[in-house]
Each structure stands twice: as structure tokens, then as C-alpha cells.
Amino acid sequence: MHVLILGGTSEARRLAELLAADARPGLRVTNSLAGRVAAPRMPPGEVRVGGFGGSDGLAAWLGGHEVDALIDATHPFAGTMSLHAAKAAASARVPLLALRRPGWTPVAGDSWHEAGSLAEAAELLPSLGRRVFLTTGRMGLAAFTALDDLWFLVRSVDAPGVPAPSRTEVLLDRGPFTLDGERELLRRHRIDVVVTKDSGGAATAPKLTAAREAGLPVVVVRRPPGPTGVPVVTTPEEARDWVREAAALAPGPVPAERQSE
Ligand code: NAP
Q1: Left (φ > 0), alpha (ψ -120 to 50) or beta: where does 87 sit?
Q2: pLDDT band at residue 259, thresholds of 50, 70 and 90?
């Protein structure tokens, strides 16, 4: 049985680890990364890097590599890849599961301002603060370039290219982050507003707690809608169980005594 995991998240990596630990004979796992990060954390199993060439390209890859099950474990904001996965799985008739961590929900004391997009987040910012902690990733910085009056602390895994806001300090780092670290960051840079995607998960959640404690507003960019009709689980363990069930239904290897028949 050949499983393709569309990855780029800690959940995708964890799922690959769980499947490797299963050590099920005949189970082949391929991890797919987009290639955005210069030095990604590598999952166990085979790894391929780069786009497939749209949903048709992915469908062809599924057929050409005899994939039996597809797991879309991409980031909740990788909306295009998720749509392509749904289309390709339907046309190649490959079972598809989405592994998507739940979004965050505000608690008492939070001052959240929802935005439908990065552009909407940029529109909100001048009314909320002057010193911005921008954690939405380097790919979407263009949405903030017109905000010359604001100062930005941009945290990203790799250095952002241009365009970026004119008054930007870059902090290269990747999660998980600690609450103490986030408190210190907000204090040291005199941050008065935070911008985040609703990525969910524990690794990057401490900034929300630190902002709440400091009484800071947080602009939270809503997730893009996922494809409809795709079963969703929220943990790598559930996805591993789905693979186990699919593997139990799949035809097993031909016993040695029957191979000569
Ligand atoms: P996207 O906008 O949904 O996808 C754009 C294109 O990138 C896709 O059409 C596909 O190219 C390629 N692609 C995306 N994920 C891929 C994968 N796992 N394997 C092979 N090709 C992939 O994606 P994105 O938001 O740029 O995210 C890219 C990667 O970064 C994903 O793996 C995602 O899990 C990870 N990531 C994203 C975010 C975020 O905020 N968006 C945050 C953390 C991690 P083709 O059409 O040529 O197949």
C-alpha cells in the first residue's frame, strides 16, 4: 500500500513518524513538500519536493506512482493545495483524508479582531497600533507594504524577500515558542498589536496568551474554506488509524507459496 502525505506541517511529520513506527510490511509512505523552506525538518520515509503542476499533475502522480491513499496534511492556509488534493483524489479515485488541526478560539480577556484576508488585516492595523508583531509568514508581506507609518517585527523561518514594509525588523525563528519567550519579545520591542493567521496548534499559541496578558489587540486572519466532502481528522493519531484501516482492507502481499502459481 502506497500512502502519499501532502506535508509541510508538524502534524504531517508526526504522522510519518507514527506510520514508520507501525513498521507495517508492504506499507510505503511518501512525503511531499512544496519546497518553500530552505532547510525543512525532514520526516521519515521517502520525500519528494516541489509542486505537481496543478490538480491534473497531482492526479497523474497518484496514478503513475500507484498511490492507494492520500492524506492532505498541509497547513490550514494552504488552500490551493487542499483544493487540488480534493480534485485529484476524485479524478484518480484515490481515498482522501484531510488532517487539519483545529483553529484557535478566543477566551476571556482576549481582544481579537477578525480579518478575512491579509489585505483586510492590513486595513485594520492603523486603527489598532503602531508597533506590529507580524507572524503571518514571509509570503504575504506584500499586503502590508503601504503601511509606512507603522513599524513591523516580522518573524519567519526564512528571510523574507522584497517587497516588505519599509520599517521592518526581521526575526528568523521557527516554533515551538514558549510563553516566556513571547512575553519578552513583546516587551523588548514595545509591541502594541499582533497579527496572526488562525493556524491553530500549541506550537505557536503562546503569543496569544502573551498578548492577552499584556492587553494587546490581536488581528486574527480567518482560514480559507477547505474543500467540501472530504473527511477531516484533527490529530496525527486519527490519521494513522485511518491508514491502518485502509491497509487492513487493501489486498496483502501474495504469500510465497502462491507466487509461482
Ligand atoms: P498553497 O498556496 O495552497 O499551494 C500553492 C502550490 O504549492 C500548490 O498548488 C502546489 O503546486 C504547491 N504545494 C503546496 N503544498 C505542497 C506540498 N505539500 N507538496 C507539493 N506541492 C505543494 O500552499 P502554501 O500556502 O504556499 O503552502 C506551501 C507549503 O507550506 C505547504 O506544504 C504547507 O503545508 C506549508 N505551510 C504553509 C503555511 C501557510 O501559512 N500557508 C504555513 C506553514 C506551512 P502545484 O499546483 O504545482 O502542485
Answers
A1: alpha
A2: very low
